[in-house]
Specification:
elongated, Alpha-Beta Plaits
């Protein structure tokens, strides 16, 4: 059987060489149908789904006290693994028919999709704005050990 697999991969590599591909390009493209939430653990030798997909949530706040309060609460309640507080940003935005300009801080919240509903509710409860900025961006790739640390630092969802 392995001879057939080797022959098929060799033939595909030979065929693709006429089209400007290297054989391994086609081999890796064989697995492009797999969803992005699957990870490969070389110790286990099979593909396993991740417990939760890591994401970065962006949130702007008006002052350092609010930033510290939200960041500490989210980490203490295991809704975030880490929150970076980035000072000194200026936001220019349209609000209630006018153009506004404010000095703000940006929270970069490392979290997971599994706890997002609770995280969003907690930010709404703690945030002073009528309409807080809460934008979740999935993390497509990253250092696997760091992404595992994010997920393992969060509360478990049932």
């Amino acid at each position: 059987m392995w001879a057939i697999v080797w022959f098929n991969l060799s033939f595909i590599g030979f065929f693709n060489s006429f089209r400007g591909f290297r054989g391994h390009d086609f081999f890796f493209s064989l697995f492009s149908f797999l969803p992005s939430r699957l990870t490969f653990n070389p110790g286990l030798r099979y593909i396993q789904p991740m417990a939760a997909d890591p994401q970065i949530v962006l949130c702007t706040v008006p002052d350092e006290d609010t930033a510290e309060n939200i960041a500490t609460t989210l980490v203490n309640e295991k809704l975030a693994a880490c929150v970076n507080i980035v000072p000194g940003i200026t936001s220019v935005y349209r609000w209630k028919g006018g153009i506004e300009r404010d000095r703000e801080l940006l929270l970069l919240i490392k979290s997971g999709q599994g706890v997002y509903p609770d995280l969003e509710d907690r930010i709404r409860a703690l945030h002073p704005y009528e309409l807080p900025e809460v934008i979740a961006v999935p993390i497509g790739s990253g250092l696997p050990e760091y992404l595992d640390w994010i997920i393992n630092s969060l509360k478990t969802t049932s």
